[in-house]
Amino acid sequence: MSITVDEISFVAGDTLIVNGISLAVEKGKVLGLLGPNGSGKSSLLRLICRLRKARSGVIRLGEDDISAISRAELARRVAFVEQQSTTETQLTVRDVVRLGRTPHRGLLNSWAADDDLRVDEALSRVDMRDRAMQLWQTLSGGERQRVHIARALAQSPSELLLDEPTNHLDIQHQLDILSLVSKLGITCIIALHDLNLAAMFCDSLAVLDKGKLVAAGAADTVLTEGLIGRVFGVRAHVERSSIHGRVHIQYRMS
């Protein structure tokens, strides 16, 4: 396995946010992390990249416990795209994406041709190369999100974590970004709200509710009408799409 989470728990103050979750992601596969607001999705992603400290349990990248991996190595290996990220510094789009190369460069290392190549590739992948010299602050919310994904790709990670990466994107770019991520060939965990997008682009799904893992597996076994009703509080009809062959959910009026 590329990422293994074993009985991990996390507490904030007196509140148990992540409660004994265990899951695993195979190398090169995409796991969709689903659940209502407050279910623990974002906290779990932060635990995996060691931005939060677990109360108990173990997280492994390959065979390595993340607690034994140096900060520098972890930064080279795992890229994390958050829901929102902002700065008051006047940076161009290219400047932001160049930051993705930081973990691969020592204090004395000069900028290399390979760094430029990685940055150019990342910008092209998210369709932002023609905006490279534009100030980041002048971009729309969706464009900023695409730039942050490009920064993560420039990092050349072996594991990529994305927290609601499509929240600020129009429909075309939601499909473009998730299609891109699904074809990267690296291990990805994507926290999503849209169940249909998760079913379309993820190899497997994990559903959280109130900090606990309540279902995991292929979309057609996880996204049942019963589970959608219990966890998300909505009535749904689940069928297989005649267009893409994946599970498709239609929501019923109350």
From TrEMBL:
One of its GO terms (molecular function) is ATP hydrolysis activity. Residues 3-235 form the ABC transporter domain. Keywords: ATP-binding, Nucleotide-binding, Transport. Pfam families: ABC_tran. PANTHER family: ABC TRANSPORTER ATP-BINDING PROTEIN, HEMIN IMPORT ATP-BINDING PROTEIN HMUV. Belongs to the ABC transporter superfamily. This is ABC transporter ATP-binding protein. The lineage of its organism: Bacteria, Pseudomonadati, Pseudomonadota, Alphaproteobacteria, Hyphomicrobiales.
